């Protein structure tokens, strides 16, 4: 398959624009899933485990499909970057989805997530397999090594933070508690911070417009959610640690 350069640029710029629009909207009002679901609405609800599985799976399947269809002449770095992308979505669709104890998920939000994951899976896989060009000594590039390290640090933070959140409540409990431990000692959105670091590392390692566009969209989407979570804890708990920040330790 030949590189569809105009399509890659168009989808990347569209993702950046979408990130800006999401940021503007989500700063004013939070996305209606998880703790912010309005039970009085008539939205069709999907069990959380099924919703997360269906929402995240397209990114993995589309990427693997394009990988299987590739002719094998692509460089190792492109394959490595794509396998990193697939690793994240395997964890989210096949592991996280089975472990989550979240609330039922609105069908329309799940559907929009499936569309985004499908488009992004195609964008990342097509670019890395058919468009990216790397020099022979790419493995010694400082930004690649730093990005690789950041990616796995971010993934570790994200997985560990999700583990803390899952174990906040005892079976049958529905009330919220203040998360403690790990990076939750410093920020309210430790799981979001980990995912943002993960995709910033991915973008740094790849050093390309599509990967930076995805990292930018992630910041625009998760940043406001971390901010609203932080305000939720402050308003709900009088003993909430005042030194804790929303997303970035010691800063924001």
UniProtKB/TrEMBL annotation:
Keywords: Differentiation, Endoplasmic reticulum, Lipid metabolism, Membrane, Microsome, NADP, Oxidoreductase, Sexual differentiation, Transmembrane, Transmembrane helix
Annotated EC: 1.3.1.22
GO biological process: androgen biosynthetic process; cell differentiation; sex differentiation
Domain 3-oxo-5-alpha-steroid 4-dehydrogenase C-terminal per the UniProt entry, residue ranges: 104-252
Cited InterPro entries: 3-oxo-5-alpha-steroid_4-DH, 3-oxo-5_a-steroid_4-DH_C, SRD5A/TECR
Localization, UniProt: Endoplasmic reticulum membrane; Microsome membrane
Substrates-to-products reaction catalysed: 17beta-hydroxy-5alpha-androstan-3-one + NADP(+) = testosterone + NADPH + H(+); a 3-oxo-5alpha-steroid + NADP(+) = a 3-oxo-Delta(4)-steroid + NADPH + H(+); 5alpha-pregnane-3,20-dione + NADP(+) = progesterone + NADPH + H(+)
EC category: oxidoreductase
Record GO terms (molecular function): 3-oxo-5-alpha-steroid 4-dehydrogenase (NADP+) activity
Pfam family, one: Steroid_dh
Keyword Oxidoreductase: yes
Main location: endoplasmic reticulum
Annotated TM spans: 7-30, 50-68, 105-123, 144-161, 199-222
Topology in the lipid bilayer: Multi-pass membrane protein
Cellular compartments per GO CC: endoplasmic reticulum membrane
Family membership: Belongs to the steroid 5-alpha reductase family.
Function description: Converts testosterone (T) into 5-alpha-dihydrotestosterone (DHT) and progesterone or corticosterone into their corresponding 5-alpha-3-oxosteroids. It plays a central role in sexual differentiation and androgen physiology.
Protein name: 3-oxo-5alpha-steroid 4-dehydrogenase (NADP(+))
The organism's taxonomic lineage, starting at the top: Eukaryota, Metazoa, Chordata, Craniata, Vertebrata
């Amino acid at each position: 398959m030949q590189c569809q350069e105009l399509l890659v640029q168009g989808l990347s710029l569209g993702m950046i624009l979408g990130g800006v629009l999401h940021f503007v909207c989500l700063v004013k009002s939070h996305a209606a899933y998880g703790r912010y679901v309005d039970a009085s609405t008539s939205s069709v609800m999907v069990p959380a485990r099924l919703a997360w599985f269906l929402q995240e799976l397209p990114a993995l399947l589309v990427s693997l499909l394009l990988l299987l269809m590739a002719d094998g002449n692509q460089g190792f770095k492109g394959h490595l970057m794509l396998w990193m992308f697939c690793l994240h979505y395997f964890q989210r669709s096949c592991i996280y989805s089975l472990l989550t104890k979240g609330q039922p998920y609105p069908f329309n939000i799940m559907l929009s997530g499936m569309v985004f994951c499908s488009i992004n899976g195609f964008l990342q896989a097509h670019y890395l397999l058919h468009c990216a060009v790397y020099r022979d000594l790419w493995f010694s590039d400082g930004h690649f090594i730093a990005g690789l390290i950041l990616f796995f640090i971010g993934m570790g933070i994200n997985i560990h933070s999700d583990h803390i959140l899952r174990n906040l409540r005892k079976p049958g409990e529905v009330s919220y508690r203040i998360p403690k431990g790990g990076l939750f000692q410093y920020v309210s959105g430790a799981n979001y911070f980990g995912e943002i670091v993960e995709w910033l590392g991915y973008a740094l390692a790849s050093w390309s417009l599509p990967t930076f566009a995805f990292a930018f969209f992630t910041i625009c989407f998760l940043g406001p959610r971390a901010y609203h979570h932080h305000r939720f804890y402050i308003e709900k708990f009088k003993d909430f640690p005042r030194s804790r920040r929303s997303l970035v330790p010691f800063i924001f």
